[in-house]
Amino acid sequence: MSDLRIAVLGCGSIGTAVLQGLLKKGNPGYTYAAHVNTSLSAERIESELEGEVRPRVKITYGQDKIVQSVTGADVVLLGVQPQTLSNLLDSRELVDALQDKTIISMLAGVSVSQILDILAAKRISPDHAKREDFTVARIIPTLGATRGDSVTLLAEPGDSVAADRFSRVEEVLSQFGGVIRVEESLMNSATAIGAVVHALAIVAVDSVTDASVAAGVPRSVAAAIASQSLKSAGGLLSGKDRLLPEHLKAAMSTPGGITLNAVVDLDASARSGIATAVKSAISYTNRMND
Predict the structure, then answer these.
(1) Which helix (DSSP H) or strand (DSSP E) does residue 13 occupy?
(2) CA 234 to CA 151: how far, in whole Å?
(3) Do the beta carbons of residue 105 and residue 130 sit within 8 Å?
(4) CA 35 to mean position of chain CA atoms
(5) Strands (E), the chain
(6) Angle 215-276-142 (CA atoms, 0-180°, nearest 5)?
(7) 161 pLDDT band (50/70/90 cuts)?
(8) pTM
(9) How far is CA 169 from the centre of its chain?
(10) What is the pLDDT of residues 26-35, one digit of tens each?
């Protein structure tokens, strides 16, 4: 599949990150279309794309160009705001154009079934009620996609995704980072977990940097140590040869050592707060579309 054409409908922060990751790290034979609402958004994308990859992207904007943007595409990434999905699919011409595409939804809190219901209801053809006419996959990528380092959650396929098209989805996603398959019923919870870990990383680096500066370490040095150490520890805890947290703790713990003393302090002061944040995030995410 070296000559795929991919259309991205909606290029906010995540949509743009995925597009950038595909352009930087993806198959050089892929070509792209990016569609946004306004000329201002189109200008932003123009400025954010690097010069050498810009010719591989056709940028359009406005309601009258939506169908044109997906014409000829093999894969369509939906990156609009969840609350705008119904308005986007009000165009019956667009819905009919999506019938033979592999649709990859990046909409948080919106199930494959919900998207199929909208698509089937909008078909122009007399047999418009056929949900099986559409192929829809559901993902949640992260901003790391822009560097080819996304942690992308992929809902396990239902009846709507044929085996060959699901392979196509995985191929595209692997171009901009790692892919973790998740039962769709757990997608909201999995999204919340990822969000909390990103939040934890932000708070950890920021707090460590501030405390280090207070102790006399230059801010640039402290920030570099904190961010690189986080990356190093994350690498040890991930991948095929990953260590379990308890094994990494044991490996880094010597009697009276700095790391073990820090773990003891954090267990006393931070562990319960992290657990509360995870539970709250899962609860909040599950309520998003109530």
Answers:
(1) helix 13-25
(2) 12
(3) no
(4) 18
(5) 5-9, 31-36, 57-61, 75-78, 102-105, 135-140, 150-155, 177-182
(6) 80
(7) low
(8) 0.87
(9) 13
(10) 888 899 999 9
